[in-house]
Structures are given as structure tokens and as C-alpha cells.
């Protein structure tokens, strides 16, 4: 019995990867598929960076094709990352396909550490990545990425080239002011500075721009949500009830302005004490919050000395210990967030949100 292309496509569409949530054909992931003799030649293009899962996916699909159709599978798996802006009325920014906002309701939960490692994890998965440090009052990314003493160059006297750090493009107000220079600015000046950092940086065709927001739900968050084509937000929290209380406010703020929340990262979830785990800040808070709001728990990260040391040294965990369990957790978080953008962000009708001056 001969095997048709339709038979091959049926097998491919029957495979529902958990990060995609639908068959590969239905997801538009099949770039080409043909049967040539006793071989199935398939080119798959996923909508998110996927270096960490390609081999396993190829092995699984190859076995299914061989078992069900009796063909030898010749598979090529790559990524084609499209632009997904939540607000359809906002124009994409030059050189940027997608924007991921990393937010927290309160300070001290490790948001900037997560943002840096998330950006590096997306790059490790095969994406072109930028990182914008939007914390104007307390920029930390230059120090965390080991480029604190760098200064941006300009191609034309008007715009700035981003700083290259560990394979990603970085911009921060920290590159333009001294470490001990306070930014004594009111809200409008801060939002203007954010706009300049974002729009006057020459981003070089990044698939994802990760924006490290300051904690809270103030001017910068609202400006980003209302005027910039954000693809989705990641909420960082610890399991502690006080942190979760503020994280819920951040989540609700993004929902109010119709920016999809890609999921929650629970940081400092436990501390390994050798033979057991100590849940210093409580247990399961991130999972309960995710279930409460019907969103995904993107991942959990431990409280460890190594993460702090690596950030202080300017070499975040994904770079300093790429094979470690923690680095792999960051990469899984990156894949899940990017897959949410590609396949899991629902369309919406966006209301006009008015912020009064009172």
C-alpha cells in the first residue's frame, strides 16, 4: 500500500506538543512535507525558539512516522518567529518583532535577575534578543550583565547602538549616568526617558525585546502597556503571601489594559538543604495564583547563593552554568513564554483606558 502526503500530514497533525496545544498542521508549523519512495521528508518551523527540544521532537516524530506509515523520517526542525502585538492598532517598532514585559508587584523578588536570564535563555534557544532596562530609578542590568562601564556609540549623532553582552543587545539608562547618580525625576520625565531608550536605540532585528520593568503599577507600566506594542507580560513573584498580594495587582493592571499575561515565574520557591527542601517563603503560592487567574505557571526557581554570585560577577546563570538545572529551568521558562506568544495569546477587543490627572 502506497503512502500519500495526506497520510503523512495526518500523522503530523495527530502529534500535539504541550507547548503548542494543537496538531502541527493546525498550528501552521509544517513548512513542507512529502513522501519520496520509502522516506518522509518534513520541514517543521515552530513559532518559538526551540533549540532545547528539537532533538527530542525529531526522535518522537520519527518514531511515529515509522510506526504508523513504515517510512524513514528525514526531519528538519527550525523556528520562524513572527510578530505578535497585543494591541493591533499599534505599529511594530523598527527592528523588534515581539516585546515581553517582565514585571513584579513589589521589589526584592528577583525580577531583574529573571529578566536577564530570560533574555539569555531565549538567545540560547536560538532567538535574536534585546534587553531594555526600564527601571530608570534603579537600573541594574549593566552590572548584572558585566557591562557596567560601557558607553553606547551613535551611528548618526541622534540614535544609540545597543551594548552587546553575552550575545544579546542591551540598553539601559545606567549606561548614560554614573553608578552613584540618582535620577531625581518626576513621572513625565521618566516616561519620556523610557520612550527615548526604546525608540532611539538601533535594535538589530531582535525576535524578542525583554523589558525589565520597575516594580509596581505606575507611569512606566502604563506607558508601556498603552503606547507600545507589547506581546505579553511575565509576572515574577515569590511564594510569600505579601509578594503574591502585590503580584496580583500587577497582573490585574496588565489585564485591565488588555496586555496578555504569559504566565507567572515563582522565584525563591525553595532552598535546598542537602537532604531536604526548605520552603522559606511558603510553598505553592505561584501555582495557586496561576490557578486562580487561569494562567500558566511558567516555572519555579530556587533560592541559591550561586544565582546571586553569578549576577554580581556579571555572568548570569544561563551563561555561567549553562548545563545546570537552574539554567535549564530558565530555558524551559523561555520556551513556554515564547510559545504562549506564538500559540496561546487570544485576540481581544481593546477598550480605551483613560487615566485621570486627579
From TrEMBL:
Belongs to the Mrp/NBP35 ATP-binding proteins family. Pfam families: ParA. The gene is apbC. SUPFAM superfamilies: Fe-S cluster assembly (FSCA) domain-like, P-loop containing nucleoside triphosphate hydrolases. NCBIfam families: PRK11670.1 (NF008669). It comes from the Bacteria. InterPro entries: FSCA_dom_sf, Mrp-like_CS, Mrp/NBP35_ATP-bd, NUBPL-like, P-loop_NTPase, YlxH/NBP35. GO terms for biological process: iron-sulfur cluster assembly. This is Iron-sulfur cluster carrier protein. Binds and transfers iron-sulfur (Fe-S) clusters to target apoproteins. Can hydrolyze ATP. Homodimer. GO terms for cellular component: cytosol. Keywords: ATP-binding, Hydrolase, Iron, Iron-sulfur, Metal-binding, Nucleotide-binding. GO terms for molecular function: 4 iron, 4 sulfur cluster binding; ATP binding; ATP hydrolysis activity; ATP-dependent FeS chaperone activity; metal ion binding. ATP binds at residues 105-112.
